[in-house]
C-alpha cells in the first residue's frame, strides 16, 4: 500500500466528502472547500445594499477622524510630514471605523468593505461572480458618498487624500501598498475564511490589521490598502497625483495573498495525506501480524493432525483414558448406591 501512496496524494474531495487519490490536489478542490453561495440576484442585491451602507459609514468615520487629526495644530511645517501623534490618530481612526462598520453590515453582507479583499475572495471561490460585481459597485458608490459626507461637515479642504510623502519615491509607495494589502488579505483568508478560533472576533481582527497597516504606511503615502477609499477621497478633493499606485498596489497584493493562501492549502493537504498514509501503513502492519499469527497456528494444528505428532496424540490419549476411567468409576459408584445389599 505504501508503494501506491509514494507517488500520489490522498486528499478529501469536498464535493463528494470522500477521500480521493491524485498526483496533486486540484485547485478546483480547494475552491470547493471555500465555496460560496451560487449567484442569486435577490440575495446578492440585498447583500450589496448592506455593503453599500457599511462602506459609507466606514469612509465617513475614517476620513472624519483623519480630518480632525491633520487639522490639529502641530507647530511644525507642513512639509515635515505627519507627527507621531497624527500617525497614531490616523491609524486608530481607520481601525476603529472599520470595526464599527463591520458590526453594522457584517450580518447582512459579511463585511468586505474593500475591493482588494473582494478580489481575493472571488479568486478563492468564496464569493460568486455576481455578488462580486454588485459588491464592487456598492463599495465604490458607498465610499464616494461617505467621502462627500465628510467633506460636507468639515470647514476646510478634505485632508484624507493618498499622496506620496516627501522623500518617498514611486517604488517605495507601490511596494508598501503591495505588502500591506497582501498582509491584510492573508489575515482575512486564514483567520475569517478558514474559520479559525478568532473568526468570532472578525471585526476586531480586521480592525487591528488595518490599525497596524496604517501605522506603517501613513508616513509613506497615507496608507490606502483599499482602492475605493483612495478613489473616493481623490474624487472629492480633485487630487490625482500618483493615483495608479493606490489601485495597482492593493490589487496586486491581493493576488499575491491568494497565491500564498493556495500554496499553503496544498502543502497542508500533502501533510495530511502523509499522516493518512502512515496510519494506513500501521494498520496494514498490524493486520499482517495478526493474519500471520492465525495462519501459523492453523498450520501447526494441521501438521499435528496429519503427520501424527506423538506428543499431541499422547496428550489426547491420556486425556481420553482419564475420561474413560472417571466414567467407569462413576458407573461403579452409581451401581453400588442403587443395590447396597448385593455382593
Automatic annotation (TrEMBL):
Sequence ranges of Polar residues compositional bias: 317-343
Biased composition (Basic and acidic residues): 303-316
Subcellular location, record wording: Membrane
Source organism per UniProt: Mucor flavus
Membrane topology summary: Multi-pass membrane protein
Protein name as it appears in the record: Aquaporin
Region (Disordered) residue spans: 297-343
Major localization listed first in the record, in broad terms: membrane
Amino acid at each position: 500500500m505504501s508503494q501506491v501512496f509514494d507517488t500520489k496524494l490522498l486528499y478529501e474531495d469536498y464535493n463528494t466528502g470522500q477521500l480521493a487519490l491524485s498526483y496533486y490536489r486540484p485547485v478546483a478542490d480547494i475552491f470547493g472547500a471555500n465555496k460560496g453561495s451560487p449567484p442569486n440576484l435577490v440575495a446578492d442585491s440585498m447583500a450589496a445594499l448592506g455593503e453599500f451602507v457599511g462602506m459609507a459609514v466606514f469612509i465617513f468615520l475614517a476620513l472624519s477622524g483623519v480630518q480632525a487629526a491633520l487639522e490639529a495644530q502641530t507647530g511644525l511645517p507642513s512639509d515635515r510630514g505627519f507627527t507621531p501623534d497624527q500617525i497614531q490618530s490616523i491609524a486608530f481612526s481607520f481601525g476603529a471605523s472599520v470595526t464599527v462598520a463591520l458590526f453594522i453590515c457584517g450580518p447582512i453582507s459579511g463585511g468586505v468593505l474593500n475591493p482588494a479583499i473582494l478580489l481575493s475572495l472571488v479568486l478563492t471561490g468564496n464569493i460568486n461572480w455576481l455578488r462580486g460585481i454588485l459588491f464592487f459597485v456598492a463599495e465604490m458608490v458607498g465610499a464616494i458618498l461617505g467621502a462627500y459626507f465628510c467633506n460636507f461637515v468639515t470647514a476646510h479642504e478634505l485632508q484624507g487624500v493618498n499622496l506620496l510623502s516627501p522623500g518617498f519615491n514611486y517604488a517605495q509607495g507601490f511596494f508598501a501598498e503591495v505588502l500591506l494589502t497582501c498582509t491584510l488579505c492573508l489575515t482575512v483568508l486564514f483567520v475569517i475564511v478558514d474559520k479559525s478560533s478568532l473568526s468570532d472576533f472578525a471585526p476586531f481582527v480586521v480592525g487591528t490589521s488595518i490599525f497596524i497597516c496604517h501605522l506603517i504606511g501613513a508616513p509613506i503615502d497615507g496608507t490606502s490598502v483599499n482602492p475605493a477609499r483612495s478613489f473616493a477621497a481623490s474624487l472629492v478633493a480633485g487630487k490625482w497625483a500618483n493615483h495608479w499606485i493606490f489601485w495597482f498596489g492593493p490589487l496586486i497584493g491581493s493576488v499575491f495573498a491568494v497565491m500564498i493562501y493556495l500554496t499553503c492549502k496544498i502543502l497542508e493537504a500533502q501533510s495530511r495525506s502523509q499522516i493518512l498514509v502512515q496510519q494506513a501503513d500501521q494498520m496494514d502492519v498490524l493486520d499482517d501480524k495478526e493474519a500471520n499469527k492465525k495462519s501459523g497456528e492453523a498450520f501447526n494444528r494441521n501438521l499435528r493432525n496429519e503427520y501424527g505428532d506423538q506428543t499431541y496424540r499422547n496428550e489426547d490419549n491420556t486425556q481420553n483414558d482419564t475420561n474413560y476411567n472417571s466414567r467407569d468409576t462413576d458407573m461403579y459408584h452409581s451401581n453400588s448406591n442403587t443395590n447396597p445389599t448385593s455382593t
